[in-house]
């Protein structure tokens, strides 16, 4: 292969990185999207023709990781501390008094930053390349989420080249979901009548912990750095200079960072941002005020829990008052009854609020919310508002307490309270409201993904008894659908087509779609990877379920109960008979020779693709991680290994050539 091609690949990577930086970090794109796409396509083509040129940090490799089964835990180089919080100006002044007293005559100033409401992350760069990304976890130990973080476009895979590239760089910052992305995600979920995500922070956390980096990539997460970590040498003498150096290295730093000479200036900035925060496309829950001079920070030290040189000012939660017009009782897919207050519409934190969840009947009784009450509602970083309290003094005469429903509002059958729980449940398996909710979940985007089968149509299908369980969807015919309201030839054809296409969904989505209690998308993926096929899964006992990593006793019992129940078993059997064939490329259950062993792979291999070797390792029960740590058992090296090889040698991790690897795999006794 000619040098010309190698050069072109390098030029393309550099150009694409620079445009990524302009677009995702600086927000000032210089070329059109089609022009960018052409560069990207050219690089992709060259890498396909010359696989030996593929490198881990090529812009084409952001979503290259395969779904992982678990995240490895990594101990932080030094604990990721939390920050002391306050809601009061006077406490900010008291903080400043303490700082001034401890620093004596030294001059100091503050840097005031937005407190991004996301989740803390620690990134490591080795010789300019992203090598590790770890969540905060409990502050001491976090999860290795490198494969997922690599999909975040504002996180540089490679730092911008410059004169003083640090050999080792640890960066701490916040991963967040833009409000616009969050709203769109919830709009889609609402359309599919799925439960709404509470706020952008939990949505970001959930997206980062998805087992499939491909799905994380679709969640459009973003990143701002706010510090360097103690593992690497300081980039400057002040925090202000450190942030400037990070920017120069291509790392996104929030543009609204400001300096304040006094605490009063800092307080003024906090007040200003409390008003301006709605202009931002990300959620902030306060401001962080930090002493700027790094040497003075050392002098101030920390309390073990939080540093003494920094304080967070939290914005007060936004509240409004309104009237409860009525209280509805909703029936969820597992029969849980939830009281919901319908409110006189009121403006709160930029949106009109008409409904508020009352969570459960214990909460409703604690608050004693009644129809016609005046109530205070609050949005505290949550998108769904809560009723905080009732203004009892203003309660109109002759109201009555809301009674706990003795019967289900949908099917009329007697309700039951969960043992040791707060939930009131409809336990009638034939309850039409539950069936509708279960069907909505079954057809949802993350489950069987049956487009065009909206809420209104599901209502009609259940009300006309055309559908009594999931399997009935697969026997619907054109004439039956045409007999329903608002159905035309074209829409019927689309629906039948979408139902047909859903037959090939992988096992993980099929398991999730069944809506088994306590089994969400993530556990469904774990089960699919472990069991590989539906027959094995259906035959497993609760003990066998619990033996699976991350499947606890509650889940195990729920799964065993579901597959023992003749009714639910019957539905699954009818689904199979209707032509569904859910399978998952899965490890063989016999070969567990690599169980408990963690591998990392680096460099270009001769016989295997990256995916191929991962599958081979997983098929024998081993785990594949994205980066080398003390927990790594083996590093498999191909040609042109990068920093992982050096790291493995440093940590004393056993290094295997491709040939060694094959021998190990065939000689389980030695492991
Ligand atoms: S500084 C030891 N700066 O807020 C000091 N934190 O409540 C490290 N956060 O866990 C934190 N924006 O995840 C800092 N500009 C900012 C921040 C920020 C968001 C988060 C961070 C931290 C939490 C503390």
CATH hierarchy, class of the largest domain: Alpha Beta
Number of alpha- plus pi-helical segments: 24
How many domains in all? Answer: 5
Give the number of DSSP strands.
22
Structural class: alpha+beta
Shape: globular
Biggest pleated-sheet summary: 5 strands, mixed
Q: State the CATH superfamily name of the largest domain.
A: DNA ligase/mRNA capping enzyme
**Residue share in helices?**
25-40%
Q: In angstroms, what separates the terminal alpha carbons?
A: 39 Å
Radius of gyration: 28 Å
* Widest sheet, order of strands: 2-11-10-3-9
- Low-confidence regions: 667-671
Looking at the structure, the CATH topology of the largest domain is D-amino Acid Aminotransferase, Chain A, domain 1
Oligomer: single chain
The kinds of small molecule bound in this structure are: 2-(butylsulfanyl)adenosine
Give structural notes.
With 671 residues, this protein is an alpha+beta fold. The chain has 5 domains: 3-61, Helix hairpin bin (Helix Hairpins, Orthogonal Bundle); 74-314, DNA ligase/mRNA capping enzyme (D-amino Acid Aminotransferase, Chain A, domain 1, 2-Layer Sandwich), CATH 3.30.470.30; 319-399, Nucleic acid-binding proteins (OB fold (Dihydrolipoamide Acetyltransferase, E2P)); 432-577, 5' to 3' exonuclease, C-terminal subdomain (DNA polymerase, domain 1, Orthogonal Bundle), CATH 1.10.150; 598-665, 3-Layer(aba) Sandwich (Rossmann fold). 36% of the residues lie in helices and 19% in strands. The protein is built from 24 helices and 22 strands. A 5-stranded mixed β-sheet has the order 2-11-10-3-9. The chain has a 5-stranded antiparallel β-sheet with strand order 14-13-12-15-16. β15 and β16 form a beta hairpin. α1 runs antiparallel to α2, α12 (432-442) crosses α13 and α16 (507-513) packs across α17 (521-531). It is globular and about 75 Å long. The two termini are 39 Å apart. Residues 667-671 have low confidence and may be disordered. The site of 2-(butylsulfanyl)adenosine has 15 residues, from β3, β8 and β11.
């Amino acid at each position: 292969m000619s040098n010309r091609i190698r050069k072109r690949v390098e030029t393309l990577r550099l150009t694409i990185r620079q445009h990524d930086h302009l677009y995702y970090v600086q927000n000032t794109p210089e070329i059109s999207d089609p022009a960018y796409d052409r560069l990207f396509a050219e690089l992709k083509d060259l890498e396909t023709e010359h696989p030996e040129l593929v490198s881990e940090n090529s812009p084409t490799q952001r979503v290259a990781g395969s779904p992982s089964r678990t995240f490895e835990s990594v101990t932080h180089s030094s604990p990721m501390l939390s920050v002391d919080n306050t809601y009061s100006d006077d406490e900010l002044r008291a903080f400043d008094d303490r700082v001034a007293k401890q620093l004596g005559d030294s001059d100091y100033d503050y840097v005031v930053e937005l407190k991004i409401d996301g989740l803390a992350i620690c990134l490591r760069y080795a010789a300019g390349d992203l090598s590790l990304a770890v969540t905060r976890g409990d502050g001491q130990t976090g999860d290795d989420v490198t494969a997922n973080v690599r999909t975040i476009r504002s996180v540089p895979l490679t730092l911008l080249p410059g004169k003083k590239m640090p050999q080792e760089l640890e960066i701490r910052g916040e991963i967040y979901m833009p409000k616009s992305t969050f709203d769109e995600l919830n709009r889609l979920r609402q359309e599919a009548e799925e439960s709404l995500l509470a706020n952008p922070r939990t949505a970001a956390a959930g997206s980062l912990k998805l087992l499939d980096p491909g799905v994380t990539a679709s969640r459009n997460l973003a990143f701002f750095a706010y510090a360097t970590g103690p593992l690497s040498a300081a980039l400057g003498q002040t925090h202000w200079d450190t942030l400037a150096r990070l920017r120069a290295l291509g790392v996104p730093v929030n543009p609204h960072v400001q300096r304040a000479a006094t605490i009063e200036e800092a307080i003024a900035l906090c007040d200003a941002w409390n008003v301006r925060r709605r202009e931002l496309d990300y959620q902030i829950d306060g401001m962080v005020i930090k002493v700027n001079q790094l040497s003075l920070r050392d002098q101030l030290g920390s309390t073990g829990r939080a540093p003494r040189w920094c304080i967070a000012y939290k914005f007060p939660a936004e509240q409004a008052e309104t009237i409860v017009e009525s209280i509805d009782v909703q029936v969820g897919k597992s029969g849980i009854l939830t009281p919901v207050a319908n409110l006189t519409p009121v403006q709160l934190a930029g949106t009109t609020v008409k409904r508020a969840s009352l969570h459960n009947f214990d909460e409703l009784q604690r608050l004693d919310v009644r129809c016609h009450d005046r109530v205070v509602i609050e949005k505290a970083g949550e998108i769904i508002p809560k009723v905080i309290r009732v203004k009892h003094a203003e309660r109109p005469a002759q109201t009555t307490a809301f009674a706990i429903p003795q019967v289900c509002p949908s099917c009329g059958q007697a309700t039951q309270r969960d043992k040791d729980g707060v939930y009131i449940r409809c336990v009638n398996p034939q309850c039409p409201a539950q069936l509708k909710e279960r069907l909505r979940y079954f057809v949802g985007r993350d489950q069987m993904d049956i487009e065009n089968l909206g809420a209104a149509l599901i209502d009609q299908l259940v009300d006309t008894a055309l559908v009594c369980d999931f399997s009935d969807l697969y026997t619907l015919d054109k004439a039956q659908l045409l007999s329903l309201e608002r159905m035309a030839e074209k829409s019927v054809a689309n629906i039948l087509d979408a139902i047909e296409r859903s037959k090939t969904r992988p096992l993980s989505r099929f398991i999730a779609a069944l809506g088994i209690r306590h089994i969400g998308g993530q556990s469904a993926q774990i089960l699919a990877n472990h069991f590989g096929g539906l027959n094995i899964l259906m035959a497993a006992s609760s003990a066998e379920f619990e033996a699976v990593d991350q499947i606890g006793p509650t889940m195990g019992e729920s799964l065993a109960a579901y597959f023992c129940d003749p009714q639910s078993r019957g539905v699954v059997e009818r689904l199979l008979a209707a032509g569904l064939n859910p399978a998952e490329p899965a490890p063989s259950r016999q070969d567990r020779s690599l169980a408990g062993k963690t591998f990392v792979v680096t460099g270009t291999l001769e016989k295997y693709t990256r995916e191929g070797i991962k599958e081979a390792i997983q098929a024998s029960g081993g785990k594949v991680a994205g980066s080398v740590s003390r927990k790594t058992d083996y590093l498999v090296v191909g040609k042109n290994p990068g920093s992982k090889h050096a790291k493995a040698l440093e940590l004393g991790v056993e290094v295997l050539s491709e040939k060694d690897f094959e021998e190990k795999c065939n000689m389980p006794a030695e492991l």
